[in-house]
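Hey,
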Amino acid sequence: MKNTTLIITIFALIAIGAYYFFTRSSDTETSKVITTEVKQGPFNIYVNATGELKAKRSVKVRGPQGMRSVGIYQTTISNMIPEGTVVKKGDFVASLDKTELASKMSDVQTEIDKVQTQLAQAQIDTAIDMKEIRDQLANLEFSMQQEKLEIEKNRFEPQMIIEESKLKLEKSERDYTQLQDKLRLKKIQSEAKIEEIDANLRQQTNKMQQLSAISAEFTVMAPEDWMLIYAQDWNGKKSPGSQINAWEPTVAELPDLSEFISVIYVNEVDVSKVKKGQNVEIKVDAFPEKLFKGLISEVANIGQQLRNQDAKVFEVTVQVNEADSVLRPAMTTSNEILVFAYENVLSVPLEAYQKNDSIEYIVVKNGNKYVRQEVLGHVSNNDEIVIAAGLEADDIVCLTFPPNLSELPLLALDPAAKEKAKEEMTIANTDRAKKEQENASKVKSDLARRDVGSAGGAIFTN
């Protein structure tokens, strides 16, 4: 009897130990699963992008406009006033290197001196040649007078002598006519030669005048009153030592600081979400405590490859609605684009959402157990996804999963409820597209009206 009691006691202790061991093991595995409640309420979809402030309107300060016409295609900025200087119209802005220009002016001046020498020599040669022919004509005239007297003198001489005297006179007259023609042709020839040299001289003189006019433009003055900022190209800001070319001789800009835009670059993955008229929250990195409101006014149709970036991006222009004295061109901005806002939906963190073999599901806690609940996901942002069907507001969902995830039972959605949710999603998407189109039309007319009101009759470069 004692042995039987002892055996029963031992088995009871083993059973109790096994129960506690497996229960604690199960609790340990369960404690590793992180859960959260389904969220019900407003849901916003954002796209984030960095950008840079630019004045909406600005006047470009340009160097010489006609450098190509005189064979200068590039020059260097020798000196420029500091960026941020407030200038008045006509104030000095920059000076450009005139080394190549001075060399060309020296070459043209040498050519002018050479052509002037050629012209003087041609005029002297012409005068000598013409004088020689005129002297010959004068001598012939004298000979012809003598021959006429000879004929008169020999009129009583034999006929042969008279005829000989007449032939001599005819020959002299013919020579005289030929010399007159030679004088006329020589004059035409000399005038043509002098005209050719003179044309070359005028051409070189015009070149010198062009070079002199462009030389004056190598000292760049402010065309308007405003604050000066340095122009930018692929190599960065143009400053003393930078080069400008004949195709784009801009050295600086005078921005209108009363109205700004934020130029941002959106990744090609997100650009389909970005539309005209969407609201943007703008933070200036230099003043993170300040928040500005903006509106998308333009979205590029063609992407581009920025330096040091692998993915293609699309340029998006954001109109900054507020003005502030702290805003300056080229400040870096952080932009949060509100793609769309839903008023009252169910959403869960993206970590909870799973999709395998075209089945969307979320692991839901059901008492002390877990099940895979089929769901129908809708739209998402960077953190969460909207669930159109399959969950309730008080459900507990898993962010991390039990080790036996693949073995958990899968609760399928009711087909009728699934189709109804799909129809609601289609309606929601249609309403969203309609609202986006309305916003785009509204922002187009608003910005056009604002531009007309602020232009003030001046011509600006956007």
